[in-house]
Design brief:
By secondary structure, the protein is an alpha+beta fold. The chain contains nine helices and 26 strands. The N terminus is likely disordered.
């Protein structure tokens, strides 16, 4: 499952706190890094042995400063720097009267934290058109990046525990591996090929519209993991998630990845976060995802804003679950993916929404990828489509550029009438004109129960075979902003769903409905009782 995920190797360095005697900075602070720009204040922090820690900031624009660090009895120090304008380039000299650390070529910009499971970790070198993408990406030297190796911990960590050779520092798209860096089985040709594809491509989309603004991306991903592992204990307790420790796979223990791959960064000021996870949660507490996702994000926001200059309601982008198998196997109930997708929108069908103004969404539903046997795989190689859509929505939500949309056409009304043995449903959308083009299938699904055999609710666990694909012949675009669907009259509860399947289509960019504006965002999945 993790063949193209960032590789572990014997050359990883286990860096324990016992080695950190005297003055140090957190291991992810290095020359070439990006710190958060104004109006926020950026932090830098580490440990000390004795003496007063002082940070001298020397910048090309002449705006220098000297900061006396706050020091605790736990031998940890934090220095809060004055807000710096976008693009400021500085060096940081850190000393305590006995030791000195110098960080050069530090640039101030926007820092985005990218977290999740294997599709977040899926590297640029494993994406579709990888050769062209890597070549083109080398021009984006304003984007710098840092990658974490996966590690789980039973206790919250203030610094990284594992750092792999070659990732001791931040890189840019033109970086090479340090001389002599090689792992078992070889390695990707450059750090650029080894960074999260979705994270870098998202930053690239931002860059295309923000000019040469420096962007820092931090990729924190662990394959095959559940949301429970990424959430702190208080967030899980709020959702009545029972304590759980997986003795065989510690990375799936509650809060273990929060402890080791989130907590170390929560004194570092960031612009926002990107979340791509959910596949493993379809089979583990899926009904709780409607609680665990917003609870986790709320806890992250509280921790980051309390301990750094990060905004209290910093923006969070979510990549909605992509396709997998078509049709789903008997073992894998295909209703779980639509349920998780719905919960990823906090049960509204879209982000942002009345419950959450600073979250945004990127759809991956039309990126189906099959293996050599024709079976759909869990890792679609097309990361460009969801990254671009995430970037478009992020420009609106995170940067206030309201000319960019956050979603495609979405229903605002549905009327129904009876015509013989058929129920006629007229769905009106919030965009005009729409263009319905069912090139592969209608995209609409009906759940029709006999008496009370099924609730047919999209926000509950309903077997996949209860949702039947409606024939193309029963769906027609009836006006510039409406689609009419004819369905049988049901004895019990019934619902209409759009894209309500694990893999609704198997063609890239093959969904039936997209915006007709220049951005072309797809219509989101949704369901309604009828």
């Amino acid at each position: 499952m993790g063949a193209l995920i960032n590789k572990l190797s014997p050359l990883m360095l286990l860096l324990s706190s016992s080695l950190a005697s005297g003055l140090s900075v957190a291991k992810f602070f290095s020359s070439g890094m990006v710190l958060q720009e104004a109006p926020s204040t950026a932090n830098i922090y580490g440990t000390y042995g004795e003496g007063q820690v002082v940070v001298i900031v020397s910048c090309l624009d002449g705006e220098d400063e000297e900061v006396i660090a706050d020091q605790g009895s736990d031998m940890k120090w934090t220095a809060t720097l004055a807000p710096r304008s976008s693009g400021s380039r500085c060096s940081l000299q850190i000393f305590d009267g006995f030791n000195e650390i110098v960080l050069e070529d530090v640039v101030f910009g926007d820092v985005w934290f990218c977290a999740g499971q294997s599709n977040m970790g899926w590297v640029l070198g494993g994406t579709e058109n990888k050769t062209e993408e890597i070549e083109d990406a080398q021009a984006y030297t304003n984007i710098r990046f840092y990658h974490l190796d996966p590690f789980a911990s039973s206790e919250p960590q203030d610094d990284l525990v594992v750092v792999r050779t070659g990732w001791e520092k931040w890189n840019d798209p033109q970086s090479d591996w340090p001389e002599g860096t090689e792992w078992d089985g070889g390695h990707w040709p450059s750090p650029l090929a080894d960074i999260s594809g979705i994270c870098f491509l998202y930053a690239r989309e931002l860059s295309d519209h923000l000019g040469n603004k420096p962007l820092g991306i931090i990729a924190s991903a662990y394959a095959g993991t559940r949301i429970d592992a990424w959430a702190p204990p208080d967030a899980l307790a709020a959702c009545d998630v029972e304590d759980y420790v997986d003795e065989k796979h510690d990375y799936n223990s509650n809060s273990y990845l929060y402890n080791s791959m989130i907590h170390p960064f929560q004194k570092m000021t960031i612009k926002g976060a990107i979340w791509y996870q959910g596949e493993s949660s379809t089979s583990w507490n899926p009904e709780k995802y409607i609680c665990t996702l917003p609870s986790m994000i709320s806890a992250w926001r509280t921790q980051w804003s309390t301990n750094s200059g990060t905004l209290e309601d910093f923006p969070v982008g979510v990549v909605q679950l992509g396709p997998w198998k078509n049709p789903p196997s008997v073992k894998d109930d295909g209703s779980l993916f639509p349920l998780l997708r719905w919960h990823q929108t906090l049960d509204y069908g879209y982000l942002p929404n009345p419950a959450e103004a600073n979250m945004f969404l990127g759809l991956a539903l039309d990126t189906y990828t099959a293996n050599d046997e024709g079976v759909g795989i869990i890792h679609p190689k097309n990361k460009q489509l969801p990254a671009k859509r995430l970037g478009i929505a992020g420009l609106n939500v995170a940067y206030g550029m309201k000319q960019f949309p956050t979603k495609g056409p979405f229903p605002v009304d549905m009327t129904n009438s009876i015509d013989g043995e058929k129920k006629i449903l007229v769905i009106t959308y919030d965009e005009t004109p729409i263009h319905y083009n069912p090139s592969e299938n209608s995209g609409f699904f009906l759940c029709c129960s006999e008496a009370d055999s099924s609730s047919c609710r999209g926000d509950e666990l309903v077997p996949a075979d209860n949702w039947k694909l409606i024939p193309i012949s029963d769906v027609v675009q009836s006006s510039d902003s409406s689609i009419t669907v004819s369905v049988p009259i049901c004895e019990g509860p019934s619902s209409l769903g759009y894209l309500w399947a694990e893999s609704p289509v198997t063609r890239v960019h093959g969904l039936p409905l997209y915006s007709t504006n220049r951005w072309g965002l797809p219509a989101n999945p949704w369901w309604m009782e009828i």
